[in-house]
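Extensin
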Amino acid sequence: MKNWGVVILLVLLAACAGPPSRRPPARPSTPAEQPDDPRKLRQCRADLSAMGVKYEILPDRRFAGGCSATGSVKLVAIGIPVTNLGALKCGVALPFSQWVREAVQQAARAWLDGYVTKMESFGTYSCRPVNGQIGNRLSEHGRANAVDISAFQLSDGRRITVKEGWSGSDPNVRAFLRAVHRSACRRFGIVLGPDANAFHRDHFHFDMGKGPYCR
């Protein structure tokens, strides 16, 4: 009889508890943005100036959805004209300027017997999730912490695009694109290209998020 009493009590407690929760599991939260270290920011700007890079200091801005552009600059002249450059954290602007002025031209001389006269960008700051896919965490573009490069204009008139050149028929173009990709991996925390996924089939993505990762 005592055992039957225990069973009845357990049934009654289960009924009081109700059905299990059907709420979906919570998505991982976006990591909180770390404040910019003023000393590192001053040093970064000084390093840009020492390289001869011209830039504008932009005011800190914060937007809905966790997006922000703080500690950022607008690159005005870095040795090669680059289209569509907007707000970019100084911590990305510095290695990007070094990559443009050094690695890109070295690779162009080595593999293309020329030099780059202009580069094309898909932009820098953009308040959106990773790969533009709803539900993903905030992209580093949403923190002005990334830049995308899509094409290179050469002194002989050729225009090399990541989309057509990465797996194209010209071995020298393929070698050039892989050389600038490899050199970026030594400068940025995250580097993505056509081998990373379909979202990057037509550009190189560079950011200073948590890494290192090069693909």
